[in-house]
Structure formats: structure tokens, C-alpha cells
Amino acid sequence: MATNNGDVLMLEATPEAARPWASAANAEVIDALPYIDDDYGNPLIKSEVDRLVEEEMRRSSKKPADFLKDLPPLPKFDFKNCPVLGKEYERVRAGKPPVRIDFESRYKLEMPPANKRNDDDAWKQYLQKNQRSLQQKLIELENLELMSKLGPELWRQNNHRLEVFLTRMQRLAQEQNEEIEKVNRERKYHQQTTSYELNALSQEWRQLCVKNMEIQSACAMLETQIDSFKKEAAERGWNLEEKLENVEPLQMQ
Known about the structure:
Elements: E1 2-4, E2 7-10, H1 15-18, H2 43-59, H3 83-94, H4 120-236, H5 240-252
Antiparallel strand pairs: 1-2
Family: Belongs to the SPF27 family.
Organism: Arabidopsis thaliana x Arabidopsis arenosa
Pfam families: BCAS2
């Protein structure tokens, strides 16, 4: 996080917060001043940014197919406590159609097969089975009656609990949004306040660059003139080094 006298100017996402599964060597730091950087609306800047992004994408070895490779592996589910769910998971994973539930056979009265119609034990077994099925249907009817009596009130209570939970979640979301808005306002205020200093420093830097270029140009001109004078002195047979040695003692006096 960049600061100026304790004021927050910009936020930098740390590697641990942004990508906890990635190493620090591959971390990417977000560094921007969005409230005062006005280059984003410049079409020339945009075209240059698009060019750099396309160039980076061409150089990148990562393909769209393996963009999740840096993420940790998914946990393996064994469904030890729920074998029915495990069997259904394997069915969906294999792409098999769901098993059709036969509701009609549940309400049919079963009879012994034709070869056991004269067997009393077989009739007793099927009779007991049908009695159990009938008793189950009676219990289901009782459950439906209880549901019709007590179900509406239970649903109202459940809806009330859900509404309370929704209200609490909305309040927490509103508090988080207010905190985010507060941080954004502080960032905007500090960035805009510091922009005057940044603009002044940028202008000073430009002026110094221009002055340095002017000095370099003047130095180049002086070097050209000195080379020209040396050449002219050599043509006239003057020994400039000897003359300079005679001048230095006079200057010291």
C-alpha cells in the first residue's frame, strides 16, 4: 500500500491475499491511481495498451485450457457417509440417464405367480406383504393429514426464519458496501489531494529533462567548436598544450 505521510494513495494486492496458492516469485502487484490518472481515456494510450496486451498473450505459454492449473486440486469425495449419493454422483459422472422411479407398482396388489397359486404359504407371504404395503399407505395418509393441519404453520415459521436470516445478510452486505464506499472515498480524496504535488513534480521533471537536453546540446556545440579550434591551431602550427601550461601559472598568481 503506497502512503504519503500516512495517507492511503493506492492499494496493492499482496500475493497471499490475491493468490494464496501461488508463489511469491510469480506474484503480480496491482499499482494504480485511478482517480487522477487521465491516460485511460486517451485513444492513443488505449491502442498502445491493447497492443502490449496482445503481445503479452502471444508470448504467454499458458493456454485457455489450463488457466486453472495454478489453482489447488479439488478435494476427492468418497461419500462414505452417504452411499446413495455416491452412487448417484458416479452415475452423473459417467453420463448415464437417471433411474426411472416406478410409482405404479407401489399401488398395485401383488399376487403369487401362476405356478404358486395353489401354495398356501405363498399366499400367506404375499398377503403379509400387501398388508404391510396397505399399512404404509395408511401411515402416508396420516402424514398427509398432519401436513395439511400443521404444515402451513410450519412453513410460516420457516419463512419467518428465512426472512430474519435474509434481513441479517442484507444488513451485513450493506455494512460491507459502506466500508467499501468509505475506502473508495478516502482513496479518491487522498489521490486528488496528492495530485497537485504529483503534477508539480511531473512538471519539474519535464523542465529538468528539457534543461538537461539543452545543456547536452550546448556541450555538443562547445565540443564541436573546440575540435574546430584545435584543427585550426594544428593547421597554423600552434602548440595549444604549451600555451595552456603557460596560462595556468598566471591564473594561479
